[in-house]
């Protein structure tokens, strides 16, 4: 497998094989821990976009005719290969994304859950049958694949997010064109190779490397039937509007600003541990990261002290580990993103917040050019500040002090995002009220990152999801299939009823 990533220009995967790009356009791929450019990634031109979609169309013609049993055999083979070789994929993710190896493995395992769900697809796409719905008439519904489907993914989960979609899309008989993030493009190629080894016909899984040009190609090409997008909110909105205008089915998951509401009765040691895990894991580059701790007074001072103590013990370094020892947290994705995160801490400070732990000047010895940013804790962040209202996507925890449960709920509900949230309490009644009143798609009760299991569905509310369909679970199977209802009568010559021009009635 190493041949794919050894090339200096990371190319596409078209027609079941690596395809070098002729576009002449590339973007750098970094090792975020060292700051060095590890490769260039191809950025597709129009002819490569056309070749990818045309190949997928051919792949669909073949694959959609495969029996359910044959499709299932390929899915099981893919699952077995992934399970056996996932360590290779984790190393690729860490090298390009920067997250620590165990975290890279964690995202693969959560993606693998969806592969496992998809192996049971016959049950989920089998339709329904109503015998003798009207006298002598049977009605049944069948679920058919859409055709070529586009998946556009963000940098922060280069394996898991594509796996939220493609196992179900492929199981249902579609052909997928995946446009990975240009910041970490190699995981997608590894997955493509794995599909090949699992016996998937050529063209059913295609990787198109690129930028806005490739995305716009998928959004506008009439051969592409649907678009599944995950990324930042402004782009999610653009994707939703553009693809919808071109007649496609769209699901577009956007950004987040997730709050953890801490009631005074909560166990503050548990809360501090969970705030650290959910705030600083993957350097805060998770759409389900906790960004805001809403402390219902009088707990804020004690909680801040506990979180600060724990920050001091965190080990930050190269996600690949040094001499077999893995740190807790790796770097951010790019130098530019590090500047953006630092900019938000500057804004909070200018707006009157108190910087309790400052990660802006943090450097890792021996990795001075890496894109590291230290865990940062900010108290008394004004809710009028852009640093509170916007997504930072870095290892920054903001504390906002509130006086009551209701003040906390109102604040969460007033935000533009509605991806995830959590409440920490031992009061079941308060947790139940929170669950009912909060305007957010995914809720944790004493669980800080409530990413639903594969057989439930993933998706937020408000500016965190454009379109009706969430990712995976039953939503996933509905999204990647189109239903037909068939009304059928086998005429009995003895009793067919003769001529009747009235509108058909059921009897
Ligand atoms: P991004 O929006 O910059 O990029 C996502 C994808 O869109 C990439 O493939 C990129 O190439 C493409 N893209 C970027 N700019 C574009 C443009 N102008 N036109 C067309 N396509 C464009 O997001 P990112 O920085 O890669 O990822 C981080 C963001 O993703 C965060 O906002 C995070 O919250 C969000 N995210 C959300 C979820 C979720 O489930 N809601 C999950 C993971 C990440």
From TrEMBL:
<dbReference type="InterPro" id="IPR016161">
    <property type="entry name" value="Ald_DH/histidinol_DH"/>
</dbReference>
<dbReference type="GO" id="GO:0006574">
    <property type="term" value="P:L-valine catabolic process"/>
</dbReference>
<protein>
    <recommendedName>
        <fullName>methylmalonate-semialdehyde dehydrogenase (CoA acylating)</fullName>
        <ecNumber>1.2.1.27</ecNumber>
    </recommendedName>
</protein>
<dbReference type="InterPro" id="IPR010061">
    <property type="entry name" value="MeMal-semiAld_DH"/>
</dbReference>
<feature type="domain" description="Aldehyde dehydrogenase">
    <location>
        <begin position="21"/>
        <end position="486"/>
    </location>
</feature>
<dbReference type="InterPro" id="IPR015590">
    <property type="entry name" value="Aldehyde_DH_dom"/>
</dbReference>
<dbReference type="GO" id="GO:0006210">
    <property type="term" value="P:thymine catabolic process"/>
</dbReference>
<dbReference type="Pfam" id="PF00171">
    <property type="entry name" value="Aldedh"/>
</dbReference>
<dbReference type="InterPro" id="IPR016162">
    <property type="entry name" value="Ald_DH_N"/>
</dbReference>
<dbReference type="InterPro" id="IPR016163">
    <property type="entry name" value="Ald_DH_C"/>
</dbReference>
<dbReference type="GO" id="GO:0004491">
    <property type="term" value="F:methylmalonate-semialdehyde dehydrogenase (acylating, NAD) activity"/>
</dbReference>
<keyword id="KW-0560">Oxidoreductase</keyword>
<dbReference type="InterPro" id="IPR016160">
    <property type="entry name" value="Ald_DH_CS_CYS"/>
</dbReference>
<keyword id="KW-0520">NAD</keyword>
